[in-house]
Write a structure and sequence with these properties.
Blueprint: H1 12-34, E1 46-50, E2 63-67, E3 70-74, E4 88-90, H2 100-104, H3 110-123, H4 126-140, H5 147-185, E5 191-195, H6 198-221, H7 230-235
Helix pairs in contact: 1-4, 1-6, 3-5, 4-5, 5-6
Protein name: Pali-domain-containing protein
Keywords: Membrane, Transmembrane, Transmembrane helix
Organism: Roridomyces roridus
């Protein structure tokens, strides 16, 4: 029986489960974001929409939602809901190319579309990379019984956390840049830019990954109430 000062405050199995749970949740969120619109149409990065009021309801698109793999154009007659998007979607594709005939039917200028598209193209590949790193880190965390693999998981988690945080920062800048460019592009049009749910999911993934880094650090260095087992301590002497 361990003496009180030898008894770990946190069991190894419990801490390992916490690490895996945090990394799995972060991976799931990163995966969903990387498969956003047009693959998962209800997850998107941002939307550009017309704010004009008093206009008759027509089939002309009044909102463009941009995701990692494309864009969806919707009107007031087929407005997207939380569970579906029945608009005209273009993708999955690399980059954002909307047919000219569709643009002509929208209340949003081609200049606005081009400005948003150029910024989005830059971040297109970063989301799948973050999801891939998150999966690799999750897989390595399944072998925390090995101290060496625990250290490897910690290193991978730090890299993943940094990349995921950088992706969220870029998503944040994306919306801010789009908002700052609208006054010079919209002319007489009345447009607005709205956050999508994908950036906030990315933020949650980054926070969960950093929490996993803390847990893995405690597991790797046997600190914060985590101590090696009696068998491990005896093997060192």
């Amino acid at each position: 029986m361990l003496k009180p000062h030898h008894r770990p405050l946190v069991a190894h199995g419990t801490l390992s489960f916490v690490c895996v749970a945090l990394l799995f949740s972060a991976f799931l969120l990163s995966l969903l974001v990387s498969l956003s619109l047009t693959i998962i149409k209800t997850i998107y990065l941002l939307s550009v929409f017309s704010t004009r009021t008093g206009q008759p309801a027509t089939s002309a698109a009044t909102e463009l939602r941009f995701g990692v793999w494309g864009v969806c154009a919707t009107s007031v007659l087929n407005a997207p809901t939380f569970f579906a998007n029945n608009g005209e979607c273009f993708g999955p594709m690399l980059g954002y190319t909307i047919p000219a005939d569709i643009v002509a039917l929208t209340d949003i200028s081609q200049g606005v579309i081009n400005a948003v598209s150029q910024v989005l193209l830059f971040v297109l590949v970063l989301h799948p990379i973050a999801a891939g790193l998150s999966f690799i880190t999750l897989f390595s965390s399944l072998f925390l019984a090995s101290h060496g693999l625990t250290i490897l998981s910690l290193v991978l988690a730090i890299i993943t956390a940094m990349v995921t945080t950088a992706v969220f920062g870029i998503d944040l800048a994306l919306v801010l840049v789009a908002k700052s460019q609208l006054p010079s592009l919209e002319g007489e049009l009345q447009l607005g830019v709205q956050w999508g749910n994908a950036p906030w999911m990315g933020l949650a993934a980054a926070v969960l990954t950093w929490m996993a880094v803390i847990a893995l650090s405690a597991r790797a260095c046997y600190c914060m109430g985590v101590r090696p087992s009696t068998k491990f301590r005896r093997s060192k002497f």
